[in-house]
Amino acid sequence: MPTGTPRPRRLRSAALRVLAVCATLAALLLGAGAPQAAAASSLPCDLYAAAGTPCVAAHSLVRALYASYDGPLYRVQRASDGATKDIGLLATGGYAAAAAQDAFCSGTTCVITEIYDQSARHNDLTVEGAGGAGAADVGAPADALPVTAGGHQVYGLEISAGMGYRDDSTSGVATNGAAEGMYMVTSGTHVNGACCFDYGNAETNNKDTGNGHMDAINFATECWFSPCYGQGPWVQADLENGLFQSDAGHSRNTSDTGTGPLPFVTALLKNNGQDHFALKYGNAQSGGLTTTYSGGEPTAGGYSPMHQEGAIVLGTGGDNSNGSIGSFYEGVMTAGIPTDAADNAVQADVVSVGYGAATGSTGTLNPGSEISLRATTSCCTADYVRHQKNAGVLSSVTSAGSGLNKNDATWIVRRGLADSSCLSFESRNYPGDFLRHSDFKLYRQPMDGTALFRADATFCPQTGRSGTGTSFASYNYPARYLRHYDYNLYIASDGGSEDFDSTTSWTDDVSWAVSPPWAP
Question: Name one GO biological process term (predicted).
Fold first, then answer.
């Protein structure tokens, strides 16, 4: 598609649309949300429309959210020359044509400048401007969050502090106490306690205009009203001037300890705008939804009725409080409150996507292959590169060992973030986190898009220095190699001032066996 041309939308014939909606509605009435309960051609916005609560916004970098959608999902801008390109779908109602992004951005970097609304409302999100609590944001790096979805290699949106998207002039979004629902697919492994990783309804002037002027999902470890139970992260309602887990603000549900480090989470909020809101979450890879709160609006003044203004925000608070981090794969907003049956059907559809499924390639250094890296030094041939509490370590992993150890020791090979002729290693169970060095030590950290991170997380393979296996030279310190020393991981030279630069067994310690992954 030529850059800048209007995005097309292809509608099915009226007869086909009527048949599809009727089939979906019948499934909702009969099936209570099992995967087979919805017509195979029905995607989230088809399901909500069939239940009488159509989408007024539908955003995703990953896939179509209508079975009939065939327009672009998002736009990227290239650093080398400022050129832009819309990234569309492999097929109508399908998944992102991520290879087009890879080709366009080859040899340089790209940021995401616009996320298109797939609904007829055209509520597209662009990089957020300055607000009452934050300077203008920047676009997220387009390659920061590779993921498998629907059996395809695509990208999600990874938000670091100072990034966010917004539309202050929308169509059809709830205002002044109108009812609405919304969900997003996010991640429990890329969160923090800063304000505010939100998706939903916000102020139109990028400022805090008072209680009840927002109605957005928040997902974070920030506990605004004590007590919160567990460590989070929690699905909360950002209704302005508070992240609410109940009408009292604080949690009334001692069993709601948060989702924990689930790599993919469905977060859901619905609000009638007058006297009731509800919060739900689910594992986006399996199972159904759990309701953590369903009850009255906050008892403080200004929330009953609500005073929503109808802007849409993604990645920040309503006043552009932008210290948060988070991941976003897809999300919608509806007119009216969806039924529980519709929510269940949407969750079943999300699960069917197969977020984070195996890439289908193992045991090689080809991009997309899943691997484990085994030490070849005689002391440690049963030990593997793994992450533990963010740090890179060498650890024993066995078939009888824990699933956590196996997941921590599994990496997805990616094209080098700083040089596509080299490699980067993405964590299998922390999507968007990569193995990188800092002060010569190895860590697992989320990709923030900076040139320093890209360089630190890029390694160039060569024949093992011991004559066996593979050695990985640091991209920005080419005389230093990935090494294990005293069961920690470093980039080390063959002789130097640091203990981990010791020449003793150096060639063996920097030579690795590329092995099949411990986690499937």
Answer: L-arabinose metabolic process
Cα 491 from Cα 458, distance rounded (Å): 12
Provide the number of structural domains found in the chain. 2
Contact residues for 261 (Cβ-Cβ < 8 A; gap 6+): 188, 189, 429, 430
How many angstroms separate the CA atoms of 520 and 136, rounded?
41
- pLDDT, one tens digit per residue, over 66-112 is 999 999 999 999 999 999 999 999 999 999 999 999 999 999 999 99
Say what the pLDDT of residue 12 is.
Answer: 37
Domain hosting 486: range is 370-515
Active site residue 180: no
pLDDT bracket for residue 520 (50, 70, 90):
confident
Share in percent of the chain as helix, strand, coil (round to 5): 15, 35, 55
Buried b / exposed e over 347-381, threshold 16 CB at 10 Å, is bbbbbebbbbebbebbeeeebbbbbbbbbbbeebe
CA 98 to chain centre: 15
pLDDT tens for each residue of 65-76: 999 999 999 999
386 and 341 in one domain? no
Residue 213, in any domain of the structure: yes
Helix (H) or strand (E) holding 406: helix 403-408
Q: How far apart are the first and last CA of the chain?
A: 37
Same domain for 212 and 343, yes or no, is yes
**Claim to verify: residue 144 and residue 218 sit in the same structural domain:** yes
Residue with tokens 């399908």: 94
Give the up-direction half-sphere exposure of residue 317: CA atoms within 13 A in the CB hemisphere: 29
Q: Which amino acid is at 426?
A: E
The catalytic residue among 319, 426, 448, 456 is 319
Q: Is position 319 annotated as part of the catalytic site?
A: yes
**Could you report the per-residue pLDDT of 203-221, keeping only the tens digit for each?**
999 999 999 999 999 999 9
What is the C-alpha to C-alpha distance for residues 180 and 174, in angstroms, rounded to an integer? 6
Return the residue matching tokens 């009292």: 248
Q: Are residues 82 and 42 in the same domain?
A: yes
C-alpha–C-alpha distance, residues 116 and 71, integer Å? 9
- Both 47 and 173 in one domain: the answer is yes
What value, to the nearest 5°, has the Cα angle with vertex 472 and ends 485 and 453? 90
pLDDT at 20: 44
Q: Do both 77 and 216 map to the same domain?
A: yes
Q: Which of 353, 379, 404 is the last residue of a domain?
A: 353
Tell me the CATH number at 410: 2.80.10.50
Catalytic residue among 143, 240, 330, 383: 240
Say if 8 falls within a structural domain.
no
Compute the distance between CA of residue 245 and CA of residue 224 in angstroms, rounded to an integer.
9
